[in-house]
Design a protein that fits this description.
This protein is mostly beta strands. The protein folds into 2 domains: 4-145, no CATH class; 154-327, no CATH class. Helices cover 3% and strands 40% of the residues. The relative contact order is 0.14.
Length: 329
């Protein structure tokens, strides 16, 4: 049985600190269209009705019996708030029972933004100053957040190819592949003369990529998230299937798709209003503008990043004259 703590406090209206669980760096795919319910029953048992998974949602169902002596005969005089945090992070709160401070407009679902530990406890207050806690004898309730069922088995072999050479009907030659950890340069030569200027990476999932799967696009949601390094929010694009590589599916996107210097050949920026909203660097010889870009990929909401985290990076450059108006005061 959970221990119920009850305190008599000065007259107050039920209230609680409200915050939001910080999402993981990954933007997790929504793997549950219907939230899992965790039933905190009046007989003091706790019963989840399914498996908690990253990207899903949980509804905390709280029996009013557990509110103890702070529960009054009028629902308008008491309120129970569920507090939670994921992996010891920022505390969030949702309405659980009794009076709804939001008049029923606030969501009662908890978004499972990361794999790990979901910690839950309840606070009940009433208008007469009573406060009680349902916190599993002060230890709080803990639930495991699993990887989603559609998580890929492996993502890797990321490489950039910036080359005029092609092999096997226009495919990149193996010797032109450069590991993403080494970075790349998408410069004026690459813009004008490279036959291939792309990023590739492989995905494996048993029973999905290792068969002749004509509906692969339905089973693997593959995206790239990119921005000028350290500036603004990440933008997102879907990534196309490229080819089969043994039991793996290879995906690829053009560097132009994530280019922070998107002026088309033969054009230039004519007005400051049309300049990029992020800082432009200038090469040491004064001939080129430069921007470092950063990006990472996700497959069904699971991140593919460099070892140790962060984002993959590459240098983008173009003729300074195209952006000259952006560099004048």
């Amino acid at each position: 049985m959970s221990r119920l703590y009850t305190l008599a406090l000065p007259l107050l209206i039920a209230c609680s600190d409200r915050g939001a669980v910080q999402e993981s760096s990954a933007s997790a795919a929504d793997t549950q269209s219907v939230p899992i319910t965790i039933d905190f029953r009046g007989d003091w048992t706790v019963v989840p009705n399914g498996t908690l998974a990253q990207g899903g949602k949980v509804l905390l169902k709280f029996d009013a019996v557990r509110a103890g002596s702070c529960k009054t005969s009028s629902i308008n005089e008491w309120s129970t708030t569920a507090h939670y945090r994921i992996n010891g992070g920022t505390i969030g709160s949702v309405e659980a029972a009794g009076l709804s401070p939001s008049n029923g407009t606030a969501s009662r679902e908890v978004v499972l933004a990361a794999v790990g530990d979901l910690e839950v406890w309840f606070e009940t207050t009433n208008r007469f100053g009573c406060q009680s806690w349902d916190s599993n004898f002060g230890k709080n309730y803990h639930f495991v957040i699993n990887l989603p069922a559609n998580v890929p088995g492996w993502i890797g072999d990321g490489a950039s190819v910036v080359s005029r050479d092609t092999c096997n009907n226009g495919q990149p030659c193996e010797e032109t592949r450069v590991p993403l950890a080494q970075g790349f340069s998408f410069d004026t030569w690459a813009r004008q003369r490279a036959a291939i200027s792309k990023v590739y990476f492989d995905v494996w999932k048993a029973g999905v990529t290792d068969i002749g799967n004509v509906v692969l696009w339905k089973e693997l949601d593959v995206q790239v998230h990119f921005r000028p390094a350290g500036f603004g929010e990440f933008q997102t694009r879907y990534v196309d299937f490229d080819s089969r590589q043994g039991n793996n599916a290879r995906y690829g996107f053009w560097l132009r798709d994530i280019d922070p210097l998107p002026i088309r050949p033969g054009h230039s920026v004519l007005s400051k209003a049309d300049c990029p909203k992020y800082p432009l660097g200038v090469s040491t010889d004064g001939q080129y503008v430069q921007v470092e870009g950063e990006f990472y990929m996700t497959v069904n909401g699971v991140d593919y990043r460099p070892a140790g985290g962060g984002a993959f990076k590459g240098k983008f450059s173009d003729y300074l004259g195209l952006y000259e108006v952006c560099l004048t005061t």
